[in-house]
Design brief:
7 strands, 351 residues, alpha/beta
């Protein structure tokens, strides 16, 4: 992560308190951070207490009283409570087996991560949110990707055949050095695993399409990719740690979010709103929140999000996923309507 501090845009990994000491932290960032960290105790729904305490399972230690929510806040609709219990129990069993067998990240994704996310999305507040597989969705256009120190963005001249201006220091004339190729691959083709995006009504999609009508093909996207997700507002991104790869998942998440930030800057959209992300490494889930400061990004984290090593930690994951989805369909949706949808209406009204 330290290398990203000298890139463009720069990314600085900070704890929240350290970020506050070095500059202003937007209130929207603080509010989201506090909602994810202030659980006032445990996250197991109160309705689970009686069954878990009266019928303990021999195969595992029953949760302690402090691991339950202090009150039943209704974060799980009554009609979904039994289904959520089944999904949590199955996720814990699958996670334990994956851990013991040293399973590949694809197995973790299929048997643990995806079922937990889909469980929250089937609750009423998640019905307007899509789970998107974006591991093959390249960053585009290349103008918004992160640059190495000394590298410059392509110019009109370079696009006509002289690409020397877009290369970093130490690149030989007429040739692209191996470091350049590796960096461009890292910042354009190796993406995060999942994103959560908002469903847009047909009327809104028409507004967006009309706004993009007179722009270049490479500009006609609401996010940092020109793939099938191009007309989907992304509210959350998730990266899994890859087995037998030295690549740091938080670096990949930071590169992906930096491209989202550059996309907002390109269209002069508001860049102050937080961009949350998750990193999953086996049992452990961590969250990050990125926000702009001085033409770069502050990357708050890592902060605990939950763990599939036990029942209590898995309920934490569901609880916090629910918070993020409520945030996405509430505050993020309002931000999108105010800053991007209003922009699209203005663009579409111009002759």
């Amino acid at each position: 992560m330290r290398y990203l501090e000298s890139c463009t845009p720069s990314v600085h990994l900070r704890a929240l308190n350290a970020a506050r000491k070095s500059g202003n932290v937007p209130q929207a960032v603080t509010d989201l951070y506090m909602s994810l960290t202030d659980t006032s105790g445990g996250c197991i729904p109160k309705y689970r207490y009686e069954e878990e305490s009266q019928t303990p399972r021999k195969s595992r230690q029953p949760p302690f009283a402090r691991q339950y929510l202090p009150h039943d806040d209704g974060f799980i609709p009554p009609s979904c409570q039994e289904g959520a219990k089944v999904v949590v129990d199955q996720a814990v069993r699958n996670a334990e087996r994956n851990h013991l067998e040293g399973a590949h990240e694809g197995q973790w994704r299929t048997t643990v991560v995806t079922p937990l996310i889909n469980e929250v999305l089937r609750w009423p507040q998640g019905l307007c949110v899509r789970l998107l597989s974006v591991e093959n969705c390249a960053i585009g256009p290349s103008d918004i990707r992160m640059l190495r120190p000394g590298e410059r963005r392509p110019t009109d001249e370079s696009s006509q055949g002289n690409d020397e201006s877009s290369r970093g220091k130490g690149t030989g004339k007429g040739k692209e050095c191996e470091a350049d190729k590796t960096w461009k691959e890292l910042t354009t083709t190796r993406m995060v695993d999942y994103s959560l995006g908002l469903f847009l009504e047909e009327e809104i999609c028409d507004v967006i399409s009309k706004a993009f009508k007179n722009m270049g093909d490479y500009e006609q996207s609401l996010n940092q990719s020109m793939s099938y997700i191009l007309h989907t507002p992304l509210l959350l991104d998730l990266e899994l740690k890859k087995t037998n790869q030295a690549r740091d998942p938080q670096v990949q998440l930071a590169i992906w979010l930096a491209a989202a930030y550059m996309k907002r800057k390109h269209h002069e959209w508001d860049t102050s709103f937080p961009m949350p992300g998750l990193v999953v490494n086996g049992h452990d889930w961590k969250f990050y929140i990125a926000f702009e400061r001085e033409n770069g990004l502050i990357f708050i984290g890592p902060q605990p999000f939950g763990s599939t090593a036990d029942i209590a930690g898995t309920w934490e994951i569901l609880y916090r996923l629910n918070i993020l989805i409520r945030w996405g369909t509430g505050k993020y949706q309002k931000w999108f309507n105010k800053h991007i949808l209003s922009w699209a209406r203005e663009q579409g009204s111009e002759p």
